[in-house]
Structures are given as structure tokens and as C-alpha cells.
Write a structure and sequence with these properties.
disordered N terminus, 21 strands, binds thymidine-5'-diphosphate, binds magnesium ion, alpha/beta, seven-stranded mixed β-sheet, nine-stranded mixed β-sheet, 28% helix
């Protein structure tokens, strides 16, 4: 199938069949199947709601592709080998030049790994990967950056903002997978970046680039190229809401590592989150800031999240959450106001709405504070999204502080899980949280009573153990 502009744009299954007929091109079989473009669920008939991911209206029709080409390929090592004879050492990992990214990857790039970087359009995926290319090519790796979206000139314009590049980086503007495969196996670079998978197509598959079957088959081929030549390959996948373009979730199960680049478009920082990793843990995050000259690592996110925090304002509490092995301090804000209408309004930004309602019910019942005719707004400053139970106590204290209009001293941090009886329960990794707070100059820490005993190395910060929310309320 060719990729002329018309076809790449209008690619719903019906028109595609008509087009194929007009051009005298017949698919290997004239049958079509329906795919969910969100999760790749396959069905012989159109469905309104996907049984796989429960999304509505995501089914698209596609011709049944041929997979003949797949058959002749196979991964190396088709003979069984005893496990102790297989050598794999961790030193083989290659640094990307960004410690934030290395940590999310589990210590660097593994040769032969296929890494999917997903994210909304415009979030900075191309920028991130171009910078990775720059770092790696500067440390004597031969890097090949393949773009199906932008011309070489456009890439160069972006590169000019980022800085100087070495001759180890080559660019290629190509969308045909066969051509890409030929170039990669011929030149054997040390790292390959493909931007983006939705623009790449295989000629022997009769659906348009970006369709579920194209994206899947292309990924499959890339997986074999990566494994066969032990070249790590990064692929970019756009998260799309409209159109028939398949989203990156369709290929999550095929690749080794799935990273999502998230962030508020209006805020300058971006979070790189591991969702799946065959070579490391998925709890880690990396924090970056988008600047004029590309992305900059944020090595101390707590400091970053707390800049501009109001001091001694009611309803503002600093909490400590854990992202993997890394403690991050965030500011939680609550605003409680007398409602002007019969129905009080409640909103929660950055945290779970139902959790806020639950905690408000606990406050009502256990402290006897009537919040029934008050509006409540909760916000996690800086645009972080938190859903750790250790945030409960901070949320409750922010709510009470705003209700009483009395501030909590700004040198205090709070963490602890709260149960329905109003009890404050232990949380994991209390010590790391306290140490992080100490590092940032906090003087006082309100935490679960039960956690206090287990803490060592905490001189220089006052620990206030509380066992229920009543005691916590007295600290305001
Ligand atoms: P891009 O990497 O093109 O996003 P994606 O590949 O995920 O679609 O990033 C685009 C945005 O980043 C764009 O809005 C401009 C901004 N940007 C900067 O702020 N500074 C820079 O140095 C660069 C290269 C981009
Ligand atoms: Mg891009």
C-alpha cells in the first residue's frame, strides 16, 4: 500500500476498501476486522463499547493484514540453553546521559531493548529523544534518529535550540519500515530512535499508517530488529483521542519498556513515568523542566514543587509522597467556604475526589465538625497527581486548617494514612520521608505515632507522633 496524503488522512476502513478497489489493489483477502484503537481489542463486528478497555466509540474497521513476512523471522537462539550458561551482566547497560531517565529505565538502556515513549502531542517526546541522541552520540555511540513526522530541516531547527551535535548522530526521514530495517541492519548503529510509530508503515499490510494492524506489525518487526542486532530502539507513540490513529496502549504488551511523558502543557515541568519495564522497577519517575534550550533534569523535585508556596496561610500543608524510592514534597491546599447554594460543591484537583469526600466524612463523624453546608476545594499545587494513602493526614489537616482559618506553621510536614475510625496508621518508608524533609529545612514533622519508634537518624527535626486525627487537629 502506498502512502499518499489522501490516504494517510482519510483512513476509515470503508473508504479504504473503496480506494483499494479503485486502484485495482486488492487486499490479500477482502475481509475486514474491527479493532479498538485504544487497546487493540479485536472483534469481527463493530462494537459501541470496547469490552477490553471500556472506552466508547473506539472501534475502527481495518482489512485483515497478511502476516506472511512474520513467519520467516525468528529470534536468535532457537536451541535450548541451560540458564547458567546464559551470560547477562548489568554493566552492559548504557547511560542515556540523563540520570533521571536512566533511573526510570532501571539503570540505563539495555542492548536489544525496545522502549516505547508515549505522551500527548507537543509534550516534548521528540525533544527528549533528540537530547538523548545528543548525549549518547557525544559519548561515542553511533546514533540513528529516524523521523517520519518532520523533515530533516525541522529536526535541525530543533537541534539548534538544544546545542552542538557530534558527527556520530545521523538523521533519516523515512516512513517505510522495509527501508528502515535495511538501513539499520546495514549500518548497525548503537542506538536507534523512531519518531513516531504511527507514521511508519509496512508495505505488505493493506491498512493505512497509524492503524492498529500497521502499528502492531511495525512494532513486531522493530522488536525483531532490536533483538536480532542487539540494538536498543526507542519508539515514540502519540496518545491520540480523535481519529483512527492507534494509541500507544495497543503496543504496550509487545515492547520491553513503556514510559509515559506527562505533564500539564501550561506548567513547565514534565514527569517521565515507567509503566512497564522488563529490566527494572516501574515505580520510578524522572522529572524534567522544559526550557528555551530543551529539557533540563530536575534533580531536586521537592524544591521545585514547593517554590512559590504561601507561608503561614490557612489550608496549606506540605506532605511527603514516595515515587518509587524517591521522596517528593508537595503542597496540598484546601479551601473551605460557606456554600451559597443548597448543594455544597466539592472539587479535587490532583487527588481522588472520592477520597476527599471520605476524609471529610471522617472529619464530620470523628471531630464533630459539620461540613455539610460548606464548599470544599482541594488542590495539589504544581500539578502533581497523588493517590497514596500517606497523603490522608495532610489532606485532613489542610481541610481542618482552612475550616478553622488557622494556618499550620510553614516549617511543618505531614504524612500518615487515616482510617475510617479517625485513627492515624503507619506508612511505608517513613524514614526517607523525614530525611527528605530535613534536607529541605523543615523543622517539624507530624507523622503516625507508630512510625516514630522505628525512626533513627532524625536529630535536627522535631517529630510529633499522632495516633488519631483529634491529636492531629490540635497541632493546627
Ligand atoms: P516536541 O518535542 O516537539 O513534542 P512531541 O514530540 O511530544 O510532540 O516538543 C514541542 C514543545 O516543546 C513545543 O511546544 C515547544 C517546546 N520546546 C521548548 O519549550 N523548548 C525547546 O527547546 C524545544 C526544542 C521545544
Ligand atoms: Mg514529536
Amino acid at each position: 500500500m502506498t502512502t499518499n496524503g489522501w490516504h494517510a488522512g482519510v483512513s476509515d476502513g470503508y473508504k479504504e476498501k473503496q480506494y483499494n478497489r479503485k486502484c485495482g489493489y486488492m487486499a490479500k483477502s477482502d475481509k475486514t476486522v474491527f479493532f479498538c484503537k485504544e487497546c487493540g481489542y479485536e472483534s469481527t463486528k463493530w462494537l459501541g463499547q470496547c469490552p477490553g478497555c471500556k472506552e466508547v466509540g473506539t472501534f475502527v474497521e481495518e482489512p485483515v493484514g497478511s502476516s506472511k513476512k512474520m513467519m520467516r523471522r525468528s529470534l536468535k537462539n532457537s536451541e535450548p540453553v541451560t540458564i547458567n550458561k546464559v551470560t547477562a551482566r548489568d554493566e552492559e547497560r548504557v547511560s542515556t546521559g540523563f540520570s533521571e531517565l536512566d533511573r526510570v529505565l532501571g539503570g540505563g538502556v539495555v542492548p536489544g531493548g525496545l522502549i516505547l515513549v508515549g505522551g500527548d502531542p507537543g509534550i516534548g517526546k521528540s525533544t527528549l529523544l533528540l537530547q538523548v541522541c545528543r548525549n549518547m552520540s557525544n559519548s561515542d555511540k553511533r546514533v540513528l534518529y529516524i523521523s517520519g513526522e518532520e523533515s530533516l530541516k525541522q529536526i535541525k531547527l530543533r537541534a539548534n535550540r538544544i546545542g552542538e551535535f557530534s558527527d556520530n548522530l545521523s538523521l533519516l526521514a523515512e516512513t517505510s519500515l522495509d527501508a528502515i530495517e535495511a538501513v539499520v541492519t546495514e549500518s548497525k548503529p548503537d542506538v536507534v530512535v523512531i519518531d513516531s510509530i504511527q507514521t511508519i508503515f509496512r508495505e505488505d499490510i493493506s491498512s493505512a499508517p497509524g492503524s492498529v494492524s500497521q502499528v502492531r506489525e511495525s512494532t513486531n518487526t522493530l522488536m525483531q530488529v532490536a533483538k536480532g542486532n542487539t540494538i536498543p530502539i526507542f519508539i515514540v507513540g502519540h496518545v491520540t483521542k480523535e481519529g483512527v490513529v492507534a494509541g500507544p496502549r495497543v503496543l504496550e504488551h509487545m515492547v520491553d519498556t513503556v514510559l509515559y511523558f506527562e505533564g500539564d502543557r501550561h506548567a513547565s515541568y514534565r514527569i517521565l513515568r515507567g509503566v512497564k519495564n522488563r529490566f527494572g522497577s516501574t515505580n520510578e519517575i524522572g522529572v524534567f523542566e522544559m526550557r528555551e534550550d530543551g529539557l533540563q533534569q530536575v534533580l531536586n523535585p521537592s524544591e521545585f514543587m514547593l517554590t512559590g508556596r504561601p507561608l503561614d496561610a490557612s489550608g496549606s500543608v506540605v506532605a511527603c509522597l514516595m515515587e518509587g524510592t524517591r521522596p517528593i514534597l508537595v503542597e496540598i491546599q484546601a479551601l473551605i467556604n460557606h456554600t451559597a447554594f443548597g448543594m455544597p460543591r466539592r472539587t479535587a484537583v490532583g487527588t481522588d475526589y472520592n477520597r476527599v469526600n471520605l476524609l471529610m466524612a471522617v472529619i464530620e463523624k470523628r471531630l464533630g465538625i459539620q461540613m455539610g453546608d460548606y464548599d470544599a476545594y482541594v488542590n495539589v499545587a504544581g500539578g502533581m497527581k497523588i493517590n497514596e494513602p500517606a497523603m490522608d493526614l495532610a489532606l485532613i489537616m489542610a481541610l481542618i486548617s482552612s475550616y478553622k482559618n488557622r494556618p499550620i506553621t510553614s516549617d511543618t510536614i505531614v504524612f500518615g494514612e487515616v482510617g475510617l475510625a479517625g485513627e492515624v496508621r503507619a506508612v511505608s518508608q517513613a524514614e526517607q520521608r523525614v530525611i527528605e524533609a530535613k534536607k529541605l529545612g523543615f523543622q517539624r514533622c507530624i507523622l503516625p505515632e507508630v512510625s516514630v519508634k522505628s525512626l533513627k537518624r532524625t536529630e535536627g527535626i522535631e517529630l510529633v507522633g499522632v495516633s488519631n486525627i483529634k491529636q492531629a487537629g490540635e497541632q493546627i
